[in-house]
Amino acid sequence: MEIEMKIRGLMMDPVTNMPIVVLKDVAGDTVLPIWVGIFEANAIALEIEKTATPRPMTHDLLRDTIRGLNAQVDKIVVQELKDDTFYAVIWMRQDGEVVTIDARPSDALALALRADAPIYVHREVLKNARLSTADAQNVTAEQMRQWLEGLNDDEMGRYKM
After folding, report:
1. Which residue from 74, 82, 89, 130 has the least number of CB within 10 angstroms?
2. 33: closest CA among 108, 112, 144?
3. Of the segments 111-115, 147-151, 154-158, which one has the largest average pLDDT value?
């Protein structure tokens, strides 16, 4: 089962100094942190802030290519967590045919923002991510959930949604 999520914001991990995209369940309080690279976080931040660039960025080019081929992005799904790595799939449609493409979650999220496509996460991924995060940081899943849910806009940085 897929759970619809929205990007709650971007923040920096105080331990690793790596960007985190925080996804939040649209119908509840479930949150999912996904650590991403600096460049990927920048691509997401540019779209969140609706910052125009003088030339198309990679995700803009991908969106424009999809449109140019008379296709559309229906949704992106974070569908697996394996060995502490998230896996996503971009679901597209062209001439009535469904096409799925494997993608890094950060790229899929950046494209979803640009294509105004919904973001989903498999329920099993949410369950496994809570367990993995709790084990890795020696905190309980409930403590991690409460910390992420309790973040205020200042803690989320300027990239709040």
Report:
1. 82
2. 144
3. 111-115
H or E element at residue 92: strand 85-94
At which residue do the structure tokens 């914001």 appear? Answer: 9
CB-based burial of residue 80 (10 Å sphere; 0-12 exposed, 13-18 middle, 19+ buried)? Answer: middle
21 near 160, Cβ under 8 Å?
no
C-alpha 128, offset from chain centre? 16
The DSSP element (H or E) to which 97 belongs, if any, is strand 97-103
Report all structural domains of the chain as residue ranges with CATH numbers, in order of start. 2-149 (3.10.690.10)
pLDDT for 142 beyond 90: no
Q: How far apart are CA 7 and CA 22, in angstroms?
A: 6
Locate 118 and state its tokens.
Answer: 């919904």
CB of 13 closer than 8 Å to CB of 129: no
The C-alpha atoms of residue 136 and residue 1 are separated, in whole angstroms, by 26
Which comes out higher in pLDDT, residue 141 or 82? 82
Using CB atoms within 10 A of its CB, is residue 66 exposed (0-12), middle (13-18) or buried (19+)?
buried
Three-state SS for 20? Answer: strand
* pTM metric for this prediction: 0.81
- The helix (run of H) or strand (run of E) holding residue 8 is strand 2-12
